[in-house]
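User: Show me a protein chain along with its predicted structure.
Assistant: Here is one chain, sequence first, then structure tokens.
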Amino acid sequence: MTDRLYYDNAYLTAFDARVLSCRANGDHYDVLLDRSAFYPTSGGQPFDTGSLGDARVVDVNVTQGEVWHTVTQPLTPGDTVHGMIDWPRRFDHMQQHAADHMIASALHRLMGGVTIGLHISSDVSTIDVSMPGGITRISDEDVRRIENDVNERIQQDVPIRCWFPDPEELVSLPLRKKPTVDEHVRIVAIGTDEMVACGGTHPATAGQLGLVRIVSVTPARGKMRVAFLAGQRALSDSYRCSEAAHAAAALLSTGVDSLPVAVSTLQEKLRTAEFELLRFKKEQLLSQAEQFLAEADVLSDGARVVARFVQADAILLRDLASRLIETPGIIALLGATTGDQAIYVFARSSDLSTDMGTLLRSCAVPLGGKGGGRPDFAQGGGCPAILDAARQTLQR
């Protein structure tokens, strides 16, 4: 089994080890050492990166106690190699993992939540929590309560201890949940509130987390997913949010504290403006109905066909079609383009018998479109050529 140096010292960034094995792995090589400070992907915490001699370490995993390092160059078994850990990545993961424990502890103590798993990605970390009663959301006030509980302990700089207790000590410890392994159980204790089995790397004290922020709480597969940031991630996010809030406030000529009210007022003005614009567009479009009727093509049976594209959305198309077919003897073939496609409304006056649903469908489907509806009113979409195809069908 590989001697895992990070168990004794999570701050160890350089070490020497003997190469035990090296095997090809595609364009890379898998290397086994007698000892290693590289953390392998485990328990939701990603692997360390760094170097072994001149080779870059691009992945680390563990199999039956053996830590395998995927590297960019082959190493010679029997040689001694110098390892270097990418410290910023390691320390970031240490901060995220400790934050996981502290949030899980607060959720357990204050709300009875049981953490199911941790995932640390490159931008945000998440834990899935089974909550009493199966709830998958909590209030903003409860989110702040959990967040404040964690940050109070960070400000107190409570100690973080990691060790392998003997079997007698292990059974006496007040663990938050039962270990998932029976042997070589490693315990992490944070202050006096959190104690759980964990093989990850953590800072020596909670103060080294600096800050923890919960950024979202959402349902996920029947559990509650808590997304959070710790350390530099949390600080950078705070900077970003503050800068965005101040910039938005400046644009609205208000203070940051008044920003929600200013945005709400702006939204109401926008809704009013959009309503007025829609009303104006509708009036303008419907005012052209008489002109469209006057320019309509006349079929051999005396029915008149208004076939044209207009600037409108689906609602305005329906409104115009309804206005046109109030006049007897009218077939309205209306379209509105959206890029290289179009939406259609086909309608007829009540004194005519042409089936609009059949007409639209028979013209649209061969051209890759679709459509259908009632005999007197149909809707669909497809290429602009559908309108001309329908006009020609009626003229036959």
